[in-house]
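Regression test case RT-17, inverse folding.

Input:
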């Protein structure tokens, strides 16, 4: 049988840990507070960080071009 929807990709979360300097930690806490004030929903910074990174990467045209080239070269065996 053929479906219009392809099989979904692996969506298993990958746990990563990172360390940030105190200034960035403070900025992330402030962002979470502004988010709460804006949307009325409290979220911890660590819950917002993945969406922030996804948004950043999606808006970086240079990264997208380089990533396509990277995967293109990898599929050619380079």
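Golden output:
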């Amino acid at each position: 049988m053929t479906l219009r929807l392809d099989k979904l990709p692996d969506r298993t979360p990958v746990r990563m840990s990172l360390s940030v300097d105190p200034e960035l930690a403070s900025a992330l806490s402030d962002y979470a507070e502004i988010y709460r004030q804006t949307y009325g929903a409290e979220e911890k910074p660590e819950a917002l960080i993945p969406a922030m990174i996804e948004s950043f990467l999606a808006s970086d045209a240079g990264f997208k071009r380089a990533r396509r080239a990277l995967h293109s070269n990898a599929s050619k065996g380079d």
